[in-house]
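Deliverable D5.2: sample structural annotation.
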Amino acid sequence: MKPNKLALLLLFLAALSFAGTSRIIKISYLEGRRSGNLRKGPWIYQSQKADGIVGSVGDLKILSRKAILSAPPGESMQSAKGKRTATFEGGVTVLRGRLTAKGPSLTYSEATGLGVLSGPAEMHQEPAEEKHDPVDVRAMQMSFDVDSDISTSSGDVRLSNGNQKGLADLVYYEEGRGLAIFTMNDKKSLVKLTRTRRDGVLEIYAPEVRSLTQQKKLIALWGVKLVDGEITTSGDALYYDDKTGEAIIIGKPARSVNAKEGFAISGGTLLHNVNKHRVRVYRKTFKLPLKDFNKVEK
């Protein structure tokens, strides 16, 4: 094997080893007790305090009244490190950085590095700066990846961020960056995103919406509709900046209709100013900034 290939292989193996080590959970207890077979398990942790059992893995902390740590059948608790499963019950709180999530129970797998919080679950993230808004999510289930700062919510997901509210089947969320990606399970269904303003509500419908919650910018993909009072603008994709109040819609063609005034306009690219409730053909060259809304590479 060539030296450079050997070096890459060693780096890859080291990365796998580190990931496995970082996924091993440690469970401690305050004013509680641990029971179970010391060698084979499962180990059962119990406390009278709501946060008496503390699971720590990576930058994730899991608080509950009860936890059960189990090894795969036929393996000892020690030899099974990296393959064990921890179940937290009796009301669970998840902490990571500025984020707090709560739900009835959570199951964590050392093999996958995922903690799955059963719902109905709620998540709240404080903003990194005072000028930003907090992010709140409600869903039937949430999962937290210990190898990254990514959480995923599924099942009747409702995300609120300042004047923005989004409804979807699934929301992928990068906690540090504030990127929320809204999608639906059924291709025929649409994500609904609303922005409340002084003079009404702006509605955006699309199969997929990607929002940078801190920057107040978003893109909508795969066929979009923007409803601004009596004005409806539709096209293939949309870029919206809440600070300017301008939406740029591209299509073949994009089309806007004012139902009240009976006015319609179409073009390859339209500029819809939601503050002034005006739409015009956009004459400048425009390219959808997809790269700004891409998922982080794991």
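Annotation notes: The chain has three domains: 25-90, 116-219, 223-284. The longest strand covers residues 246-258.
The annotation will be released with the project's public dataset once the embargo ends.
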